[in-house]
Amino acid sequence: MSAELSRRAGHYAAAVAERLLEADLPVTGIQSCGPWRDTDGEYLDVEAAISFTQAFQDQHGGGDCGLHWAATSGWCLYTADKEDRYLSGVRWPGAGLLPEPRIVTAFVDAFRLDPAGAGTSEQPPSYRQEGHDFPTLLESLAPYLPAQPYLFEEPQIRFADCTDAPTKTACTGHSSPAPPTP
Description:
Strand order of the largest sheet: 1-4-5-6-7
Strand content: 15-25%
Number of helices: 5
Order of helices and strands: HEEEEHEEEHHH
Low-confidence stretches: 172-182
Largest sheet: 5 strands, antiparallel
Mean pLDDT: 85
Number of strands: 7
Oligomer: single chain
Structural class: alpha+beta
Distance between the termini: 26 Å
Radius of gyration: 16 Å
Number of domains: 1
Shape: globular
């Protein structure tokens, strides 16, 4: 189940990255992982990440800057100063565990215009208990899987195909339909 959770989280990140690219935001990569234990034995839940160009990072403190999705708290945009090895700024959009890609894109656009005014820097929200209810999470991520014939394609290939496309709209062949609105 861990591998499938990682794959589906990766496709969700790829769907968000596709929207970011369509909005001319400088995305360079995606990654995801399923639940696992690190070398210290600490349990980590399902996660995904989207990275930006160095120029984007330089505009926002000069250190590491990117989007991180946790299966407990949703998306956050993090920044770190050049001198700071730790995160010096985290902004949460507060849009739920799985906001539609267009909502994440609007959040990043708002951050570019006004970093301090985008989202909130308060404690991370909690939408799901860590390590629990994986079948529901799998089902919730399913709408972001690509349609046939790409259903079994890896998320990184989907992202690479999108970034290699002559136009940003060429990646929409891999895009999943929008999840149903509650």
